Structures are given as C-alpha cells and as structure tokens.
Amino acid sequence: MASLPIDIIELILSKSSLKPLLRFKSVSKSWNALISDPLFLKNRHRKSKPSNSQDLFICCDHKGAFTLVKLKDQKLEIVQELGTQSESYRCHCHGLVLLATKYLGRCTVWNPSTRTETGVYTRLPCFYGSAGLSHDPVTDDVKVVIVFSIDFFFVYSCKNESPMLWYAEHKDGDPPIVYGQFDEKKGVCVDGAIYWVWSRHNVKKLIYFDPRIDKIKYLPMPKDAMESKMFFLADLGGFVCLRCEGRENENTVKIWIKEKGIDNNSWKYLTTIDDFGNVKMDIQSFEPQCFVGDKIVIRNKNDDKLVVYSLLDKTFEQYGEMERKCCASGLIPYLQDKTSLKRP
C-alpha cells in the first residue's frame, strides 16, 4: 500500500469502517496524519451519510434490462428492477445514462433515479462516431457528445436543449477532418470530461472533450506506456484508469491512474499484473470497475462476470455468484440525482 498514490490511499481509507480505520492509524505516520486530519474526517462523514449511494450500481444485460444492485460481502445483491430499454447502453456520467440505437441519428439521456428521459437527435448515427456524456461544472449542464474525428463532432446541451455540429475552421471553408479511429464506440466519462483512445497511422493518442469550452484536447500519457501497442481506458471508481500491455510480456497489464481534475494531466502508477492465475482474461477483456478496500473489482468481458484483484496479495478471486448475468454494461454508479429530464 505504501507505493499506492495518495489519492488512492485516501479513497480506500475513506470507505473503511471506523474500527479498521483506527487500526490503520498505526500503519505509518503519514497514514496517522491523514486519518487525523479534520478535513479527511469531515469528507468521510459526508460520504457515509445514509443518502450516499456509493455501494449501489446499475447493471444491464444483453436484452436491455436494467437492474439496481448493491455490492455486499463480495456479492451482487439485486435491489430493484429498473425496467427494459429499447436502446443500447453507451456510457454514463453524473448519474445519467446515455442510450443509443446503432444506425439511427437519435439517442436518449436517461435518469434512472427519476425515471425521466430526453431524446436527442444527433443528425448522424452514433455508429459513425464514438459517443459520450459530459458535465460542465461551471453551468451544471450535461452534454451529449458524439465525436467523428478530433475536429468534427456533435454537442447537445441538455440544459439549453440546443444542438451544435462543430468542426475546425479552414481557409477555404471546408472542414479539415483529421481521419482516424476510436478504439471504443463509447467514451470514458470522469470529472465531467470524456476520454478516448484515438488511433491514426498506427499511432495511438489519448484525447478528451473539455465541456467548459466544447473543445477536444490531447492528454499526455505516462512515459512508460508510450511504447506499448495496446491501450485501454476505464472509469475506476471515479478515476481515469489507463491500462496497457507490458513491453516485455504481452500477457502483462500495467495500470496508471490519472490524478483528479480536468486540468490535471499527471499520472500515478498503480500496479502491474503479470499473473492472471486461473482467470481466463487478457488485456482486451480486462475492464476495471471500482475499488473495494484494497481490492479492484474487474469485469471480465469474456463472460460478463466479475473478479476481484488484491493490490496487496496480487491475486485474483472470483466474485460471488450473481442471480443472473447482468454485467454486460459493467457497473454503472448509481447517484440519486434529482435532475428531471424532459421527454421530447
């Protein structure tokens, strides 16, 4: 644990119950100082209030049935059925879920907490680009973003109910579209921004949409990851998580965590996984979900089941049996957001 980034240590400690927290004070002077910090105690108290829903998640099966579940004793406990949606899950942000149909120029922003939704006409089908949801912290506006290239994308403001098709200006008036491809058909939404892995001429780069200025920017990647051939992004408990294959061994997975904040482009090395044990999984099927204590809950996309990786023991174990396969979407954090969306 001593080698973990301070943000991760603070996140793990903030989720610990009181008795283990008191024991953790004896681990080191730095831990004792952190746990004794009044600001840490205040934030922990705020997060531990009954209204907090950090242990609640939404899952979706391959038929579009959404279920509210609770992580409890290394098992998924079904809390409530949320109904079936005709459109497929794309991504989530700020307690909202983006749904879309492959070939239609329309998508839906759905609030599972209020059971309200709004339709968005995107002009071009989501299939041709990569979709994402963002949250502007300045205006408290949720935006639907579909990126077709790094300088040609669609933005819809849910607050203003206004669409915008944006492209970079060019001297002759034509959009100078920089062609490339997105490794995923959905972006990773963290801290209000949307992140993608973008490829062009066999060169991979990290880009993100800044909702404050409606622009695409480049995100520097960790130096040790630049020579890897495969990159994947994920939302790991509210952190942008980058995983890539090791240079020496293709079966090795290295993981970095981006520090919090849209403007903070620093990365912290988290861990290297070089032994998957009996778990049949590779870097492409390996999808980190969230932290539970000093462990990472991981979705195995090969079978849509969950496994747990211990950062201390560096071992895998299977998650408890689920009543049914409901992790085709991964674990979507459930927030009791009171935003009421209008049906068009």
TrEMBL record:
A Pfam family it matches: F-box
Alphabetized PROSITE patterns for the sequence: FBOX
Domain of life: Eukaryota
SUPFAM superfamilies (UniProt xref): F-box domain, Putative isomerase YbhE
InterPro entries membership: F-box-assoc_dom_typ1, F-box-assoc_interact_dom, F-box-like_dom_sf, F-box_dom, SCF_F-box_component
UniProt domain F-box: residue ranges: 1-44
Protein's recorded name: F-box domain-containing protein
Biological source species: Castilleja foliolosa
Lineage per the UniProt record: Eukaryota, Viridiplantae, Streptophyta, Embryophyta, Tracheophyta
